[in-house]
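Q: I'm writing a short methods note and want an example of a predicted protein-small molecule complex. Could you take the sequence and the SMILES for nicotinamide-adenine-dinucleotide and return the bound structure as C-alpha cells? Please keep the output block clean; save any remarks for afterwards.
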Amino acid sequence: MDSKIRIGIIGSGGIAAAHARAYKKMSDVDIVAVADIVPGKADAFIKQLELPHAKGYEDHQELLSLDLDGVSVCTPNIAHHRTSIDALMAGKHVLVEKPLAITLNQGVEMVQAAKASGKILTVGFQPRYDPNMKAIKELVQTQLGNVYYIQTGGGRRRGMPGGTFINKDLAGAGAMADIGCYSLDLALNALDYPKPLTVSAYTSNHFGTNPTYHPEAEKFEVEDFGVALVRLEGGKVLNFKISWAMHMDSLGPTLFLGTEAGLKLTPAGKGPWSGVWDGGIGTIDLFHDINGKHVDTSIPVQSHSLDIFYEKVRDFVVAVKEGKEAPIPAEQILVNQAIIDGILRSSQEGHEVDIHIPNLAETLS
Ligand SMILES: NC(=O)c1ccc[n+]([C@@H]2O[C@H](COP(=O)([O-])OP(=O)(O)OC[C@H]3O[C@@H](n4cnc5c(N)ncnc54)[C@H](O)[C@@H]3O)[C@@H](O)[C@H]2O)c1
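A: Understood, no commentary inside the block.
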C-alpha cells in the first residue's frame, strides 16, 4: 500500500487524544474523520489536536460511510461492541480500546464480526509493548517448568475514576475490568492464554459508595475491589486480585510458581495511583533451588525509551498496511473477558461458577 493509511477515530474523549497524537507522528497516516455523539465535541477535538484533514461527525455510521482503512474505537466500554461491529461490517480494520466489551457475549459477537469481515480486530493493551513484559513471557516459558500457580493483580490505594467508569451499564464492571484486564493479560499472555474452567470470586465497593472517599458516591455502581480464584486448564490455578482503593500500599507482587523455578514481579512506582500493571514493572526475581543450594537471580529491569502507547498504535497501522494478523487478537482477549464475566457472576451468586466460551463457529446473528 503506497498511499497514506486513512484513519477514523470514534469517541473523542481522553484516550482518543493519545491515539490522535500517536497517529500524528506517522508520516504514512492521515486522520480523516472523528465521531462523537456529543454535538460539537468531535469538531472541538479536531481543532484542539490540530487535525487539518479531519472532519467531525456525531454519528459513527456517517464516519464509517467514508473511505477509511481503519478506525480507533475510543468510546466508553458500552459502545465498543456496536461501533466495532459496525466498523468491521463496513470493511474497516479496528483497534478497540480495553476492555474488549462489557459482556462476554458482546465480545463473542465482535470476534464473529471480525471473522465474517476478514478485518483486523485488535485490542489496545499497550503494556504488551514493554520489553520487560516480553522478557517475562520468555522467562515463564523457558525457566519455570510446569507453572501451576499464578498470583496477579495490582492495587491502587486511592485511584477510583468517576463518570462513565463507575456506571454499571456503561462500564460493565469497575476495577476488575478497568485495570484488572491488564493484570490478567500480563499473567495469561505469559502462559499463552490457557482456557479458564471455573471461578470463585468476591467483589465489594466500600470506598466508591462512601462520600468520604468518592465525590460521586451516590452514582457508584461497580466494584472497587475484587478477588478471584480461577481454575485454568492444565492443572493451573490463578489467584487474581485488584483494587481501585484500599487501606494498604499494595496487594503484593505477581508470582508464577513452576516446577523448575518461581518468578516474582513487583510493580513500579509508589503513591495513591501506583501499583497497577499499567504502571510498569519494578523488579523481576527468579527463584530456584539447585541440588539443595538456594540460588536467587535478580533479572535487570530494562529501562527503555519506547513510547508503548505509540508502539501499540503503530503496530495496528503496520498490520493494516502489510495485511498482517491482528497484533493482539480479540479472539485471544475473549478469555480475559470470560474471566471478568465469570467473576461478576460468581460474586453476585456467591459461589463458584463455570466459565464457558461460546462456540465461535456460530454465525453472527
Ligand atoms: N489504554 C489506555 O491506557 C486507556 C486509558 C484510559 C481509558 N481507556 C479506555 O478508553 C475508553 C474511553 O475512555 P476515555 O477515558 O477516553 O473516556 P471519555 O469519557 O473521556 O471519552 C469517551 C468519548 O466517547 C464518546 N462516545 C460515547 N458513546 C459514543 C458513540 N456511540 N459514538 C461516538 N462517541 C461516543 C463520549 O461522548 C466521549 O467523548 C474506555 O474504554 C477506557 O477503558 C484506555
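A: Remarks, as requested: DSSP finds eleven helices and 15 strands in the chain. The chain has two domains: 5-126+307-328, 128-299.
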